[in-house]
Structure formats: C-alpha cells, structure tokens
Amino acid sequence: MPTYNKLVRDKIPEILEKKNLAYRLKHLDKSQFNTALHEKFQEEWREYQQTANNEEAVEELADLLEVIFAMAEIHGTTKEELLAVRQRKFLDRGGFDQKYYLIEVEDK
Q1: How far apart are CA 13 and CA 17, in angstroms?
Q2: Could you give the CA distance from residue 85 to residue 95 in angstroms, rounded to a whole number?
Q3: Do 74 and 41 touch, CB atoms closer than 8 A?
Q4: pTM for the whole structure
Q5: At a CB cut-off of 8 Å and minimum separation 6, what does 43 contact?
Q6: CA-CA distance, 37 to 47, in Å (whole number)?
Q7: Which CDD domains match (predicted)?
Q8: DSSP state, residue 53
C-alpha cells in the first residue's frame, strides 16, 4: 500500500471507497492542519511550475486557489472576504497587466 502522508481534498475518501480501495486517514487538529496546508501549498506550487501547457497550468492554479481559500479560513476570513481584499488592492494599486519591473527608486 503506497504511503502519501499529505493533505487531501474532502471527497478523496468517497472516491477511494467507490473504487473499493482500502485507505487510512486521520483528522488533523488546527496546528497540524496549518502545517499540512503550508506543505500542500508548496506541493501545488511545484506542480504548477512543472506544467507543460496552459490546461495543466490552469488545473494547478485552481488547486492553489483551493489551498489559499483554506488558509484564509485559518486566518479568520472567508474566500469572499479574501477576494474583496484582493479587489480593494487591485483598485488601489492595480494588477500586473502592464508587466512593469521596477529597477530602482531615487532616495529623498
């Protein structure tokens, strides 16, 4: 039986049961969940960096968003509130559409 030792999505046990696969899992406490989310973020980021095409990249970006939404809840906010903060920052500072790369700023 392969060992994974990683955070998985909520429906994975159901999917494994439908495939008649034996599995073991545990429920994490808040601290363990926080650590596992950070590890999952790194895993998904590595997978994104290794994508070979746009379709794979979008799939991995969606996984990253799901992890980020779970992280937001740990910090006491919802995905809707997180998206509202993102929108406020976008309106205040813009996005990255112009592809600006700041080299230096004069000191006063």
Answers
A1: 6
A2: 13
A3: no
A4: 0.89
A5: 6
A6: 15
A7: NTP-PPase_COG4997
A8: S
Chain length of the chain: 108
> Which residue type does 23 have?
Y
State both tokens at 101: 């790369």
| Type of residue found at 62 | A
Q: At what angle do helices 54-74 and 79-93 cross, to 10 degrees?
A: 110
Q: Copy the structure tokens of residue 20.
A: 């008649």
Reading the chain (108 residues) residue by residue, the pLDDT tens digits are: 789 999 999 999 999 999 999 999 999 999 999 999 999 999 999 999 999 999 999 999 999 999 999 999 999 999 999 999 999 999 999 999 999 999 999 998
Q: Show Cβ contacts of residue 48 under 8 Å, excluding neighbours closer than 6 positions.
A: 57, 60, 61, 63, 64
Distance CA 63, CA 66 (A): 5
